[in-house]
Amino acid sequence: MNQILEEARVALWTVWNRRWLALAVAWGVCVLGWLAVALIPNSYQSNARLFVQLDDVLANQIGIGSGSRQKDIERVRQTLTSSVNLEKVIRSTRIGDSITTPVQMERAVQDLAKNITVVGDADNVFEITATSGNSDMSDAENAQLAQDIAQHMIDIFREENLGSSRGEMRNALDFLDQQLAQREKELEDAEQRRLDFEAKHPDLIGGASAIASQLSSSRAELRSVESDLAAAQSALAALDGQLAGTPRTLVTAGSGGPRGELAQARSNLAAMQARGLTDSHPDVVALKKQIESLQAQVQAGGDQGGTPNPAYSSLQSMRVERQANVQALQSRAAALRAEIASVSASQADEPAVSAEAQRISRDYDVLRKKYEELLKEREDLRLRGQVETEHNAVQFEVVDPPSTPRVPASPNRPLLLLGVLIVGIGAGCGAAFALGQLNSTFATAAKLEDATDLPVIGTISLTLTEAARALRKKRLKQFAAGVGGLGLLFIVLLGAEFVQRGMVV
Questions:
Q1: Omega cis (within 30) before 411
Q2: Is residue 480 within 8 Å of 116, Cβ to Cβ?
Q3: Could you tell me if residue 459 is left (phi over 0), alpha (psi between -120 and 50 degrees) or otherwise beta?
Q4: Euclidean distance between CA atoms 402 and 152, whole angstroms
Q5: Collapsing DSSP states into helix, strand and coil, what is residue 22?
Q6: Selection from 374, 382, 390 nearest residue 62 by Cα
Q7: Which residues pair with 45 in a beta bridge?
Q8: Is residue 479 a contact partner of residue 23, using CB atoms and an 8 Å limit?
Q9: In this predicted model, what pLDDT tens digit does every residue of 197-216 receive, in sequence order?
Q10: Which end of the chain is more exposed for a tag (fewer CB within 10 A), N or C?
Q11: Nearest residue to 290 (alpha-carbon basis) of 263, 314, 309, 308
Q12: CA–CA dist 102, 81 (Å, integer)
């Protein structure tokens, strides 16, 4: 620790012993540095903030989500500082007054791109910062120019989000209209080809798949008709059997003829037997002989009289109806067999025509489907465009208009002035210390002992006369005046800087 203190004392003595050199170097460095700081032009910065409202009920209802609008705004933010937009700003401000050639414009665009920043945060707040530090303009003109640049950037931001989207929407609708007109013409041609083919080949409408479907349907219908026909024929046969066992007429006691008399005689015989007459009774014997005679007449084919049987008439009517049903089913089955044979013959005889029918039908279906998809897309796009342009789903609000800068954003001249002063004092002290190290003198006896490795018996103190002390005192005052002048100059320059800042409108 003592060694460090000793070295510090030596360094201070060396600098103090050459204080005039240190003061001269400090003055030179400070004057040159302050002159360089004074030549640096002031740059003024104007800030503006925009809030973009993305939430909208109607836009979300038709499918314009906040995510898609966020992507559009992010795209605009990234292209806001493009060369085209910056050239618009240059031509609409004082920057473009002195630009006459494309090379100058390109250089101005590059310089302006470095002086504009656009930053957005998660809350959809965009901050636009514009800086102007043209050395050919005054501070007030630079401050106004920075504000004008920020305002033009806001205008371009709004124009890019509204105007470009409207233009893109119109271009998209025009393109879809052209595609729809072309597809409509193709669809009409395909439909006409299909109608001509169907008129020429009615059996092959729909192509091979339609023909196969028609054959399958006809065969299924034929099987159903044949099944119904078999059931109808079976029912007719059963009805014929029932009709064969049913008599045409019903014989009763009062119906007349041999059968009627036979029935009457049998009735009388039953009545006699009911009264208790035996078979040997003369009346019973006579009646039995009469019955035998009547039976012989009936068996010989005598009179067939009797009452018509209603059941027989009903069965006969049912038989006629079922015969008609069987004939109708037979006719339908024959027609279906003829149709199947005709379609099969057409398919077998003309395979190329069948393939052509399938191709025409397929082309027509594809064109119709594409036309309907394009029509739906155009209507969706038109509705979306109306919402975006008329309803204006993206709402802009200028939170902070472009500020009017009153203080230079750069350079920080007071800090630079202080830095130059510190550097100048350091340079002076460094120059004095370096010069002291070059001279072969020893500040202390210990330094001498270290250098010679010999013991130092003693040291002689410096003794000044009255005249020397007066001269030394005078020079100290002059040195203090030099140091004070340097400090005073620093204060004057600092005050001039603050006064100049206050003069900016």
A1: yes
A2: no
A3: beta
A4: 10
A5: helix
A6: 382
A7: 131
A8: yes
A9: 767 666 555 555 666 777 78
A10: N
A11: 263
A12: 18
Q: Which among 11, 35, 32 has a CA at the least distance from the CA of 424?
A: 32
Residue 128: name the closest of 86, 160, 157, 99 by CA.
157
Cis, bond preceding 102 (omega within 30 deg of 0):
no
Q: What is the pLDDT, as a whole number, of residue 205?
A: 55
Rounded to whole angstroms, the Cα distance separating 480 from 211 reads 119
Instruction: Go through 338-377 and write b for each residue having 16 or more CB atoms within 10 A of its CB, e for each that does not.
Output: ebbeebeebbeeeeebbebbbebbebbeebeeebeebeee
Closest to 64 measured CA to CA, from 397, 396, 374, 391: 391
Distance CA 232, CA 112 (A): 99
Length of the chain: 505
- Tens digits of per-residue pLDDT, 387-407? 555 544 456 677 788 888 877
Per-residue buried b or exposed e for 467-477, using 16+ beta carbons within 10 Å of the residue's own CB: eeeeeeeeeee
Q: Which residue has the tokens 């049998």?
A: 266
Tell me the pLDDT band of 488, cut-offs 50, 70 and 90: very high
Cβ–Cβ under 8 Å, residues 320 and 241: no
Instruction: Judge whether residue 411 has pLDDT over 70.
Output: yes
In this predicted model, what pLDDT tens digit does every residue of 11-43 receive, in sequence order?
Answer: 787 778 888 888 899 999 999 999 998 888 888
- The residues, ordered by sequence, that sit 6+ positions from 333 with a Cβ below 8 Å of its Cβ are 222, 225, 226, 229
What contacts 257, CB < 8 A, 6 or more positions away?
A: 302, 303, 304, 305, 306
Angstrom distance (rounded) from CA 261 to CA 255: 8
Rounded distance between C-alpha atoms, residue 409 and residue 41, angstroms? 11
**pLDDT mean over 160-172:** 58
User: Rounded to whole angstroms, how far apart are CA atoms 4 and 8?
Assistant: 6
Q: Which residues contact 451 (CB under 8 A, 6 or more apart)?
A: 442
Give backbone dihedrals phi and psi of 210, rounded to 5 degrees, phi first: -65, -40
In this predicted structure, which of 4-13, 232-241, 324-333, 392-401 has the lowest mean pLDDT? Answer: 392-401
Helix (H) or strand (E) holding 469: helix 466-502
Are 266 and 291 a contacting pair, CB within 8 Å? yes
Share of the chain above pLDDT 70, in %: 70
